Amino acid sequence: MPSNSLYGKRKRPFDTFLKVLINTAAAVTVVVLLGIILYILFNGISYISWKFISTAYSETNDALKGILPMIINTMYIVVITLLISAPIGISSAIYLTQYAKQGRLVRAIRFTTEILSGIPSIIFGLFGYTVFCILFRLQTSILAGCLTMTLCILPTIIRTTEESLLSVPSSYKEGAMALGAGKLRVVMGIVLPCAMPGVLTAVILAMGRIVGESAALLFTSGLSYNMPKGFLKQIFSSGRTLTLHLYQTAREATSPDAMHIAFATASVLLILVFLLNRLAGLLSRALRKG
């Protein structure tokens, strides 16, 4: 074995210690995550039934403790927020990486975007309540909550999409433009499709932020649990999401049944997030094969 070969060198004790430390940290992370998930499912999944998922909720009627209005409100906020924020975020990332001249302005925009991604959601909620609910006179409504959540997730979509676009090899663009393709056609026909898995990752992260948000929506979307009576009427009305329902039920819990409802709601929330992530993952895999 040559003296300069890597295989001939002895393993240093520090390398072994570092490897053990990394593996231990990874194992602890996985164990804690599984412990939280299993604890929630163990305490809540036995109380989930078709009646619980498909009926309305009432604080006075013990026979009506369903979460159907909250599920509908959550889907309203997820879909409407993504319909508003995804085109804006993806377009902004395309402009910053493909069209804008790289200089102080672009660096300032990226710095501001990173700052926005670190602002606590309660501040977004206060801003949304002041601007959308009061100034724009939307009151506490699902639409005000959607606009507020758009501000919350735009930094995530922009920065993640930017990184995906920058990871596309420049030779793809240069080859297409050498063949006479225009800038817009290169971006939309080559760069964006190659970066689409990363774009979907940004959408998945944003979706998880929307579903799990409570502080910003507490100020803007309200806590009403009435059954939706129409799309347009509902988005201009107050409505609590599953996260807000979980918070409100657990906060006002005065009996074991209330805690059971809270744990069952948390279990449904976990299952919903898992299904949404799997759907986005399957779509990303289909786009890679295409």
Automatic annotation (TrEMBL):
Query: Which Gene3D superfamilies does the record associate with it?
Result: MetI-like
- What region holds the ABC transmembrane type-1 domain? 71-280
- The UniProt entry's coiled-coil ranges are none
Q: Which InterPro entries match?
A: MetI-like, MetI-like_sf, Phosphate_PstA
What would be one Pfam family of this protein?
BPD_transp_1
Q: Which SUPFAM superfamilies match?
A: MetI-like (SSF161098)
Topology in the lipid bilayer: Multi-pass membrane protein
Q: Would the keyword Oxidoreductase be found if you checked this record's keyword annotation? A: no
Q: Which UniProt keywords apply?
A: Cell membrane, Membrane, Transmembrane, Transmembrane helix, Transport
Please list every transmembrane segment annotated in the UniProt record, as residue ranges: 20-42, 75-96, 108-132, 138-158, 186-211, 261-280
Q: Mainly resides where?
A: membrane
Q: Where in the cell is it found?
A: Cell membrane
Say if the entry is tagged with keyword Membrane: yes
NCBIfam families assigned to the protein according to its UniProt record, in alphabetical order: 3a0107s02c (TIGR00974)
PANTHER family referenced in this protein's UniProt entry, alphabetically? PHOSPHATE TRANSPORT SYSTEM PERMEASE PROTEIN PSTA-RELATED
Question: Belongs to which family?
Answer: Belongs to the binding-protein-dependent transport system permease family. CysTW subfamily.
| Protein name per its UniProtKB record | Phosphate transport system permease protein PstA
Q: Which organism is it from?
A: Caproiciproducens faecalis
Task: Name the gene for this chain.
Answer: pstA
